[in-house]
Specification:
The chain is mainly beta. It contains six helices and 42 strands. It has a 22-stranded antiparallel barrel. It has a five-stranded mixed β-sheet with strand order 3-10-11-7-8, with no helix packed on it. The longest helix has 17 residues. It is globular, with a radius of gyration of 24 Å. It starts with a helix and ends with a strand.
């Protein structure tokens, strides 16, 4: 442990002496970076927020394109787990928010091409995310409910490929350990000022662990038409079919030591799995009305059919039909004072039925309810430039109504309505020290309502867990940045501090084993530092470093007579270090070494179980060949080269000590992509 601390200290010192920054080699934008994630488009140098902006134009050629973590794991303050359990989806947390999610993204807003991917109640799934066509990602690493409302303890904004110089075709095939395969066909067609992209992909794997196989089919059509210089219209259609994704479940430490690849016996017995059909249609429109005034709007509708089984008899078969839609718009006035006034409307309807799980066979119905979540948010955002200062403010008011209609009345009527409203301000100051350096500070607030799934996870079996409250947060951060200085190097140093009231946490009850329930902690506190950098040693070699360290604790939390005050919040590592070294020659040979160190993680509220730190080293090799008008990109990847034992996921507060989901040891993956 002492030696490891020395290694970490050396890496941190290297960041300071190298003036590095937070992105990967071919993704770093050393020229002027303009971001849109703060609603008002502006230079990153003027922003009083912690923002990471990454371009993936070249990265895609040699990317495995299996996990979102490939794209964002080197962002400071961000932690991703559960990559290899596709029945549960990757779990993403930013500064500790989102760590309680049992599946998908929770507490963090996901935006794709300006349209919310997160449902009105605050859930995001990744199975319908098209990794193959990601062009750019922007991330706000702090609380942003004044901009985006519910579940905005961090914001991830993804931009797909749209405008391009000429038509193209891309074909790719790759395969690797555990029978991982990826097939994809992508067409980009340019017809005057109209751009069409068609993507069809299939992703499959047998899984590292037994009973961990999955299959995903994805189709995406995107159209963008530039009507005039100042007006454009966009359309997107996405269709996903995932016919099976099995869940091998959590293991005890004794089971891990016996056979880390085994599935939990009960999960196999009850055939724990899911299948999904999902589609989404969205459109967006932007028009500049005059030199100072512009208007933009979006609308979408989505339907998701989910069938799943969990390893319990009563209610262990889930039939969920989810329909949700949204519309929003804003007016932007650009002058010395830039002002945006906007609104967002969201509506979600969940038809939830549950049946007994008779060892994988659907039994008698035990629940039938119609759950609704509706949202209306209005916001006002301002930016004002005064010499070297930029002042930013935001105000947003959200009304949320949650209702349940009980359609299964043999056990009583649990119908109910809950209203959850919230007002969220923010204020920030950015000071340009010199042309390429800044100091910034901001204070912001956030709120996160329980989701419909969390409300319905009631120990009484149906209806609402009416004891659940929205968690509310107030956050402060202070930072320093250098841009494109000292041989094209960048550095970010940020201190953050947040206090949350009524933190929503998951737990398991011995009276209802194998089921997840939720409760509120009194108060929790998060604070720490993020240091990230990029250093261009020469025109061939680049180094990226990020280091995050923090304390995430229950400030006040008494539950069922147990006092957890002062304990660490489970599921969050106390430090994360990533170091990437990339070498690229004139003839397009690419070599990338990526080292990642994850600190200790507590598995339960009492902190009696700790998962010790883990280290992994990955290598990627790729080469571009030109054959007539065809570009050929073969690539080869080895993950976890030294076969270190670590965990892909920790099941927080799991009953019976079933905390552990082992991660793969060494895996090999390779493929080839053609661009015509």
């Amino acid at each position: 442990m002492h030696n490891k601390k020395k290694i970490i200290a050396i890496f941190i010192l290297q960041v300071f002496f190298c003036y590095s920054q937070n992105s990967n080699k071919d993704n770093i934008q050393l020229k002027e970076v303009v971001v849109s994630i703060t609603k008002i488009k502006d230079s990153l140098k003027n922003s009083p927020f912690s923002i990471s902006s990454i371009n993936y134009s070249k990265f895609q050629s040699t990317a495995q394109q299996f996990y979102l973590s490939e794209y964002i794991e080197r962002i400071p303050g961000l932690f991703i787990s559960n990559d290899n359990n596709f029945a549960q989806d990757s779990r993403v947390s930013i500064r500790g928010f989102g760590s309680r999610a049992n599946f998908g993204i929770r507490g963090i807003k996901l935006i794709v091409d300006g349209v919310p991917e997160t449902t009105p109640d605050g859930q995001s799934q990744l199975d319908n995310l098209n990794l193959e066509i990601i062009k750019k990602i922007e991330i706000i690493r702090g609380t942003s409910s004044s901009l985006y409302g519910n579940s905005s303890a961090g914001v991830i904004r993804i931009e797909y490929i749209s405008d391009f110089d000429k038509s193209f075709s891309k074909i790719g095939y790759s395969l690797g350990s555990n029978n991982q395969t990826k097939k994809q066909v992508l067409f980009g067609i340019k017809n005057k000022q109209t751009y069409y992209t068609f993507l069809l992909s299939e992703t499959k794997s047998d899984g590292y662990r037994d009973f961990g196989n999955f299959k995903n089919l994805n189709f995406n059509l995107k159209v963008k038409k530039n009507i005039s210089k100042d007006t454009w219209l966009g359309f997107n259609f996405n269709l996903v079919n995932s016919p099976y994704a099995n869940d091998p479940g959590g293991l005890t430490i004794q089971e891990v030591e016996q056979n880390r690849k085994q599935a939990r016996e009960r999960n196999v017995l009850y055939k724990t799995q899911e299948d999904i059909n999902h589609y989404k249609i969205s459109s967006s429109y932007n028009k500049k009305l005059n030199k100072k005034l512009s208007f933009s709007t979006y609308a979408f509708i989505s339907k998701r059919n989910f069938n799943g089984k969990i390893p319990v008899k009563r209610g262990g078969v889930i039939d969920l039909k989810r329909n949700y839609w949204g519309v929003g718009g804003n007016l932007l006035l650009e002058s010395k004072l830039k002002t945006q006034l906007g609104f967002d409307i969201g509506n979600q309807n969940d038809l939830r039925k549950r049946y007994n799980n008779e060892l994988g066979i659907i039994g008698d119905q035990v629940l039938d309810q119609h759950e609704k979540f509706s949202n209306l948010g209005v916001y006002l955002v301002n930016n004002y430039d005064l010499n070297k200062f930029t002042f930013s403010s935001g105000l947003r008011y959200d009304t949320n109504k949650v209702s349940l209609e009980d359609l299964y009345l043999s056990d009583g009527n649990s119908s109910d309505i809950i209203k959850l409203n919230s007002f969220n301000p923010s204020f920030g100051i950015n000071y340009k020290i010199k042309k390429n350096s800044r100091l910034f500070a901001n204070i912001s607030t956030g709120f996160e309502t329980p989701t419909l799934n969390e409300f319905s996870s009631s120990p009484i079996g149906s209806g609402f867990n009416k004891k659940l409250k929205s968690q509310k947060t107030i956050s402060f951060e202070f930072g320093f940045s250098l841009f494109n200085s000292f041989k094209k190097s960048n550095i970010d140093i940020v201190y953050f501090n947040s206090l949350t009231k009524n933190e929503v946490l998951s737990y398991e009850d011995e009276n209802f084993p194998n089921q997840k329930f939720y409760n509120n902690a009194g108060k929790s506190k998060r604070n720490g530092f993020e240091i990230s950098g990029y250093f261009n040693i020469n025109k061939f070699i680049n180094i990226n470093v990020s280091y995050s360290t923090g304390k995430y604790i229950f400030k006040e939390f008494v539950d069922n007579g147990s006092n957890f005050s002062g304990n660490n919040i489970p599921g969050i590592p106390n430090n994360i270090l990533t170091l990437s070294l990339e070498y690229k020659t004139k003839n397009e040979l690419l070599l990338n070494l990526n080292f990642k160190s994850i600190g200790d993680i507590y598995a339960n509220n009492s902190n009696t179980v700790v998962i010790t730190d883990s280290n992994t080293l990955n290598i990627k090799i790729g080469k571009e060949f030109q054959l007539s008008k065809t570009s050929i990109y073969p690539f080869f990847i080895i993950n976890n080269i030294f076969e270190n034992n670590y965990y892909d996921n920790i099941r927080i507060n799991a009953f019976g000590g079933r905390y552990y989901e082992p991660a793969p040891k060494r895996t090999i993956f390779g493929g080839i992509k053609f661009t015509l």
